[in-house]
Amino acid sequence: MAHAVALDMFILRRVAALVRWGTRQMTKNRTDHVALLDAWAKGTYAELDYEAEGRNYAYFRKELGQRMGGRVYVPEVCWELTSRRVLATEWVEGPRLADCSPEVIRTLVPVGVECFLAQLLDMGVFHSDPHPGNLLVNKGRLVLIDFGLVAEIGQPSMESMATATVHLISADYEALFDDLVSLELLPLDADRQQVLGSDWPISVHNAARQFQQMSPGSELNKYCSTSSCCCFLLLLFLLFLLCCCS
After folding, report:
1. In angstroms, rounded to a whole number, what is the distance separating the alpha carbons of residues 24 and 190?
2. Element (H, E) at 135
3. Which residues form the signal peptide (predicted)?
4. Which of 51, 74, 161, 230 could make an SS bond with 61 (beta carbons 3.0 to 4.6 A apart)?
């Protein structure tokens, strides 16, 4: 399996190099397709090691247990049944958060926001695959599963994300621009006037408000305040970019 994956990655990396060269020759796009492929390959290899995933489970179980006061639960690993190719954890019964009633969603979405803020801004390690299938509900708690993809964040990035969250909520886009440069999400030579003159700053706030105006049950964020929505949108945005760039 590892040999087959390595061969696939080698071929894809050669293709990514060609795409990067062609894109930079014909457009102003400076995306590093090889770096993106390398990050994806690193995550793919990590997901093939179930002992490493088990250690991630144990770490998050301990750290989130201390920080979230029982509101977030991570299943316990059954180490006697776990190997590099097999992961066994306790069985947790419960529906996906997205399939729950509006009342449950209203209660647990802020818990989820706080949980991922704790990971991004305090722990410096975060669950990199928070799709709906990995967020369950059990006994009134938010349950996180599948820790195959986990990434680390340095202290400078943690501080920049904290200030970016504040600046986004307060609509201080000048300061937010500097935060994004610090996070290396914008290049050092990015045109401040061009970026701030575009529609993206207002679009982020409008998106948060639109989440609130959607029909019942259509989106989790309907049940959050605008500030919570902004935090949640920023978290998703940063998680996506960090997964690509870490």
Report:
1. 16
2. strand 135-138
3. 1-17
4. 74
Range list of H helices, the chain: 2-26, 33-47, 50-67, 102-118, 155-169, 173-182, 192-196, 200-213, 226-245
Residue type, 3: H
pLDDT computed for residue 88 by the predictor: 96
Pair of tokens at residue 131:
């799709």
8 A C-beta contact, residue 105 and residue 97: yes
Q: How far apart are CA 177 and CA 190, in angstroms?
A: 9
Burial call 51-79: b when 16+ CB within 10 Å, e when fewer: ebbbbbbeebbebbeeebeebbbbbebee
CATH number listed for the domain at residues 50-152: 1.10.510.10
Radius of gyration of the chain (CA): 20
Residue 129 known to be catalytic: yes
Catalytic residue among 122, 129, 178, 189: 129
Q: Which sequence spans correspond to the domains of the chain? A: 2-47, 50-152, 155-245
Coil, helix or strand at residue 142: strand
